[in-house]
């Protein structure tokens, strides 16, 4: 987005700040050693942000934030203690280390506790084009948010109200260091602009919106485009119908399809596995998806939303498949969960990096035609996915499709199934990727799901 910034350019002192956080981390590690810790790790971070909210042409909130966090973890053999602070005074830093040590001394041994293995620490600490501070002040941010909302309100006479528009811009700096001698710094920025509008009036009102997100201001859609898109989505939902309860093909639009991949990641994450709270316990090496389906983790994507050379424990990241040929190739583990499972860390302490879901179909129109008749889901409500059993039931809204064409909006229905069966029934993944997430996937077509609604004419 080409914002008209007139203020002086920001002085970029991020490297100096990272160096200061690195020096602070080493001081804390030295304090931990001097107190008898056999191992220690430190995380230090700084965050800066600007957030604007407007509604009906008026400014509602302007918020500028600056946060700092310091976390210290010490190990006395297999006993662990952690403490945190935001106070940089020497006495506070010393008290934080001593508190962590005191906790560790009175904690029972945990055979899985400890730093990740020293030989796994990252050596190549590259950056991946994730640092793009936005030179924008509050007045400019307000103007952009107001322009976004106004474009949406002007787009269609049926837009009668607004839930407002918001703009946020943030930058973060972090350093992780441990007693293996590893110190790694990371810096990143994130920016977003969104708008939510209300079409119709009275009992027939419908709300929808749109937002744009990126690491750089240039990645964002123009304010007017965001507003118009929000208006189109809200108006398209007017006069919704329900459906006759039954089994239908269900097409998850790209912006909600990524939640299906998120449920998979939750079920193959170490914490759920070693607690036995996953329907995918002991599933590594088994076929969960059709033979063409694949998911690749790609930590080194330039300008990727979640790229990084190391994970939250300093372990070197690597590109590798999670699912290949429909088979679950590995779990998602940090060192602690890996030890609990008798496995090796997958460099996922802190979560997954960029995920690339392989497409086997064309764009949105192509995959809609491929479905032919069924339900297009554009919104999901509730948290009805049970990671322990795989049972899935969520409120949904979207559009009924006949002959590959949208017919009318649908609201007040529930889509249900079991994730294991849903994964097997994925017929297609489109190329219509939603770029606003580190999970890169297009629309996902599931061949059959239960759709619970009401009997209505025209269903």
TrEMBL record:
Keywords: Hydrolase, Metalloprotease, Protease. Residues 132-238 form the Metalloprotease TldD/E central domain. It comes from the Bacteria. Residues 245-453 form the Metalloprotease TldD/E C-terminal domain. Signal peptide: none annotated. GO terms for cellular component: cytosol. Belongs to the peptidase U62 family. This is Metalloprotease PmbA. The lineage of its organism: Bacteria, Pseudomonadati, Pseudomonadota, Gammaproteobacteria, Lysobacterales. The gene is pmbA.
């Amino acid at each position: 987005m080409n914002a008209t910034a007139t203020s002086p350019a920001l002085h970029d002192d991020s490297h100096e700040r990272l160096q200061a956080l690195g020096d602070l981390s080493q001081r804390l590690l030295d304090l931990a050693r001097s107190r008898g810790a056999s191992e220690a790790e430190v995380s230090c971070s700084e965050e800066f942000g600007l957030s604007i909210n407007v509604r009906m042409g008026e400014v509602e909130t302007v918020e500028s934030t600056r946060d700092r966090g310091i976390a210290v973890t010490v190990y006395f053999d297999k006993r662990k203690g952690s403490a945190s602070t935001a106070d940089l005074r020497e006495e506070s830093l010393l008290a934080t280390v001593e508190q962590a040590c005191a906790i560790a001394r009175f904690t029972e041994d945990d055979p899985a506790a400890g730093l990740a293995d020293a030989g796994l620490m990252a050596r190549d600490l590259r950056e991946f084009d994730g640092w793009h501070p936005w030179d924008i002040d509050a007045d400019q941010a307000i103007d952009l948010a107001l322009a976004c909302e106004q474009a949406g309100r002007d787009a269609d006479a049926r837009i009668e109200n607004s839930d407002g528009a918001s703009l946020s811009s943030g930058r973060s700096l972090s350093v992780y260091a441990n007693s293996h001698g590893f110190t790694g710094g990371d810096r990143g920025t994130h920016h977003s602009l969104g708008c939510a509008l209300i079409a119709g009036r009275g009992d027939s009102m419908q709300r929808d919106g749109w937002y744009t997100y990126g690491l750089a201001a240039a990645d964002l859609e123009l304010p007017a485009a965001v507003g118009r898109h929000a208006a189109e989505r809200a108006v398209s939902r007017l006069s919704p119908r329900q459906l006759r309860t039954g089994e239908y093909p269900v097409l998850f639009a790209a912006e909600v399809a990524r939640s299906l991949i998120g449920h998979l990641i939750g079920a193959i994450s170490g914490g759920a596995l070693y607690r036995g709270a996953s329907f995918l316990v002991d599933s590594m090496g088994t076929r969960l998806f059709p033979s063409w389906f694949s998911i690749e983790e790609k930590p080194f994507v330039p300008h990727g939303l979640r790229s990084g050379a190391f994970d939250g424990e300093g372990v070197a990241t690597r590109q590798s498949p999670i699912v290949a040929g429909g088979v679950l190739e590995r779990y998602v583990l940090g060192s602690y969960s890996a030890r609990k499972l008798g496995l090796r860390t997958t460099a996922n302490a802190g979560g997954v990096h960029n995920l690339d879901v392989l497409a086997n179909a064309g764009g949105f129109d192509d995959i809609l035609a491929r479905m032919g008749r069924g339900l297009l889901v554009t919104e999901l409500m509730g948290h009805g996915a049970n990671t322990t059993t795989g049972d899935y039931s969520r409120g949904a809204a979207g559009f009924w499709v006949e002959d590959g064409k949208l017919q009318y909006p649908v609201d007040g229905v529930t889509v249900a199934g079991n994730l294991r069966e849903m994964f097997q029934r994925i017929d297609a993944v489109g190329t219509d990727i939603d770029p606003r997430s580190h999970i890169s996937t297009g629309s996902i077509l599931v061949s059959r799901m239960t759709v619970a609604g009401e009997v209505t004419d025209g269903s």
